[in-house]
Description:
heterodimer, A: 365 residues, alpha/beta, Rossmann fold, 2 domains, six-stranded mixed beta sheet, 13 helices, 12 strands, B: 401 residues, mainly alpha, globular
Amino acid sequence: MRHSARLAIGAVAAATLALSGCASGDGGSGGGDEDAAASESICDSADGDGPAIGLAYDVGGVGDQSFNDSAYAGLEKAVEELDATCEEAEAQAGEDDAAREERLRTLIDAGYDTLIGVGYIYSTAAYNVAPDYPEVSFGVIDGFNPTESQEDLPNVANINFAANEASFLVGAAAGLTTETDNVGFIGGTNTPLIQGFEAGYVAGVKEVDPTITVQTQYLAQEDPVKGFENPAGGETAATGMYDNGADVVYHAAGKSGLGLFDAVERAGQGNWAIGVDSDQYLTADKSQKPFILTSALKRIDTGVFEFAESVDSGKQLSGYVTYDLADGGVDYSTSNPKLSQDVIDQLDDYKQQVISGKITVPTEP
Amino acid sequence: MSRGARLWLYALAGLVALSVVRTVTGADDLTSAGTMRAAIIAAIPIALAGLGGLWSERAGVVNIGLEGMMILGTLGAGYYTYYQGPWVGLLGAMMFGAIGGVLHALATVVFTVDHIVSGVAVNIIAAGVAGFLAEVFFADLEGGGPTQSPSLERPMSITVPGISDWSADLSAQRWFLVSDLAGLINALTAGLSIFTVLALLALAGTGWLLWHSAFGLRLRSCGESPSSAETLGVNVYRYKFLAVTMSGVFAGFAGCYLAVVASSGYANGQTGGRGYIGLAAMIFGNWRPGGLLTGSLLFGFTEGARLRQGGESVHALLLLIGVALLALAAWQLYRARRAVALLAATVGAGALWWYLATEAVPDSFTEMTPYVATLLVLALFSQRLRMPAADGQPYRRGEAG
């Protein structure tokens, strides 16, 4: 009797928890239901006979208004133009390579033969899994070769972007815009990939005027959660920079960058923020938009689409594939009307100089 | 001297020490109003989580599930603030946190599950539930996404006219002690979030309730000796259940603060282990509200300082650490404790050498600063910690004697 009473309590508690979730999900969210279609993945309706794409996102998944969303845009294009079918999966915070390998194998077992890992974290997993499935193609955005021999596998492509070149241009934009001769850079994790952003940015600022001070701050050394999912830390770091004289701050810190946008709004008129990966002017809050000077664009959508296309046409990319300014794989955005034509002209000039090789942008600070 | 007076004296000594260090090193951001503000914002969520831990552990239930309850709090805050503003958002966060608390209470108090096992389960369940519900709640909203809410309205903040202006001016003067104090005053009088005030009231209120009321005495007796409490007619189950639920309420508040004051929206994973730090702050503070606030402020201050002008500020702190350790070494030598003295002297000399040999501390070290500083102070000053006697032990009615 006593035992069953306990069971009953447990069941009631569980039901309460479940119901409270549902109830609050339904209540008051009427506004959300109307455009529910917006969040439905294109994979639910894709049924073509093109490549079968398995897309594994980085931590955060679709909706980060940055990195992963850009990959999704490429996936959409592949579905529309290549008649691809697809399936999505997402990385969890704090997981290890074994978990990522398992995710790739699950996608392969489900019949997907064009696998794309969004983010360098998939590198090791892809190189471990690829030899077992020679008929499957692997593409890793920002990937690298983790093996000691550095031998390329024929079915793995490391899709890289010259983020330092895009960062160089927004650095030049910062240098041309600053009035205090003091600008800032916030990085997510202090890793070679993000250091490339810093190196390009600093070079761009110094190209305009070598006397400008550049404050740099990394939110974390290794931990991607503290680095890229820490808007509170991003806001503290950005406020510190504005307090100490900076008037333009650039971030390469994923979701932590949202804190930068809060900070610049509070810092007020005459201060600017620069976005990263996608055009963050387009996705930012209405009140924050005017402060987002420009964004360093990384056309992950191009990378995803072209990789799928290469598989579809039977000429799979492999080894290191790098997109840069010359082929439009990276760029800067001009959607904020407050970015003056004068600055745009000068930036385009810098762009040509980088493309022609007159300026070489460093990859490490 | 009373404990209150001693606490004030410690705080004053700390401020003087910081002021000396700032003047000597020229690391002006170390005690600027901005750093003080960042320190408060970083400290409050930790203090609130610690307060949650305090309620639970004072009633004898170890609560490692604070992190999970905090996650539920961020989600509740995100959902309710979006539709009904920050005040309802706060209530929603507390309610979500309380659900986590009730779950933990059910497992530990009613079913006498091991406290650690249940706490870890709460953390895992909360992360999963939040990830799932965030997608349900926010995926279709403009500016939101499956892993983050749209930008949320922030609760009102208080600015005291007059004081906030002259303290800002004074703080910018860089005068010894005066400017440092002004920086602190400015952080407390300009743009101080109403939720910060509420959090401090919750800390003070808890202190009064648990140590100066009959209710508090009964609750604490459940954590010290539940069978004795039972023989005196206290309904131990009820007190423990209530305490653990309140623990969830405060952890939920911590999550709310993180979501709408420290940042401006819900994002998956934004708690980033602060619940665990809160638990550590509570232990640091000897299971008392004043102590856990001190621990949280220490952690928040070093975190804020390193995120702002990390290299410079942390470099300046090295001087403070070095001198403090050498002083401690001399004191320990005087008391004939050679081993401790030697250890303190070695580490202190190392810190001083590092300070003198370099211009700034590399980023790779600054990230550890909050943890190292907390550990150091814990090791040096908190030798007489005493947890509630029956903390973590299962209790069944009628087993007394």
